[in-house]
Amino acid sequence: MITLSSVDINTWIASLLWPLTRILGLITAAPVLGHRSVPNPVKIGLGVMLAMIIAPNAPAMPAADPMSYAGLLILAQEMLIGVAMGFSMRIVFAAIEMAGEISSLTMGLGFATFFDPTTQGRSSAISQFLALIATMAFLSVNGHLVLLSALAESFNTLPVSAQPMNAGGFKQVADWGAKIFSAGLQLSLPIVAALLITNVALGILTRAAPQLNLFGIGFPITLGIGFIVVATILPYLGTPLQNLFLQGIETARSLPRTWVAREPRLPPPVPRPPPATTPRF
User: Fold this and answer.
1) What compartments host this protein (predicted)?
2) Mean pLDDT, consecutive 10-residue segments, the chain of 281 residues?
3) Where are the domains of the chain?
4) Closest listed residue to residue 74, CA positions, set 170, 161, 168
């Protein structure tokens, strides 16, 4: 006769619940996997399937009741780890969307906005176009599979534990957020530079021929130059996008190493003064 105690049931629940929480946190925040167009049952089913694959190979779980105070703290900690790993990859797509916003404002397409279901806001046409290009490139290089592989490795790098995490990981996520501005500006530099030269040329032309209507000819010219530059740089976007994806995945992989709880360092021992000696005569 097989007898099961409450301790055994709690252990089985915890061994699946805590890895599932980290996995669902990543799926919620990661690009493509966490998109609003993906139904919630599909996300939950994918998370449960991954948890059933990863949990048997994960290190031993802490002996804590999932409904206790310690168990709820572990649950919140695992959710933070998964969300941070997915958010580090989402920052890459935010940088690409910012490049599209800068390009649209420079071209004069600031009024051409669309509803973005991901952010529940409005984004420009060029931003949506670059986001679609980045999504297709991310799927073509199997970035979503590499991100899930980094998630599986995180259970060995940072096992499920009741010890509090090191606070250095949150600073790393904040520092990585600066990539939105630097990478977004770098990706939009060709369009901004071409349109800057175009605007300077239009200014010289208007100065030389004041009878020309700058507002009448300037807007179509800047739009045309902008579309030509966008079409020109598209074949060369593969390398910078791939580098950004690699940096995002490496950041997600390095976060668990930063969050490993470190043992407190003891202060160095204070040197004792040498014993006083009496002079001999």
Assistant:
1) Cell membrane; Bacterial flagellum basal body
2) 62 79 89 83 89 83 76 85 89 90 82 63 80 90 89 86 75 86 90 89 79 73 88 89 90 81 49 55 43
3) 6-258
4) 161
At 221 the three-state DSSP class reads helix
* d(C-alpha 79, C-alpha 130), whole Å: 30
What is the gyration radius of the CA atoms in the chain, in angstroms? 27
SS (H, E, C) 116-182: ECCCCEEEEHHHHHHHHHHHHHHHHCCHHHHHHHHHHHHHHHCCCCCCCCCCHHHHHHHHHCCHHHH
Are 105 and 192 within 8 A, CB to CB?
no
Cα–Cα dist 208/202, whole Å: 10
All residues at 6 or more sequence positions from 259 whose CB lies less than 8 Å from its CB, including other chains: 81, 158, 165, 166, 168, 169
pTM of the full structure: 0.80
Helical ranges in 67-124 per DSSP H: 69-107
Contact by Cβ (8 Å): 38, 46: no
Tokens 């901004």, residue located = 192
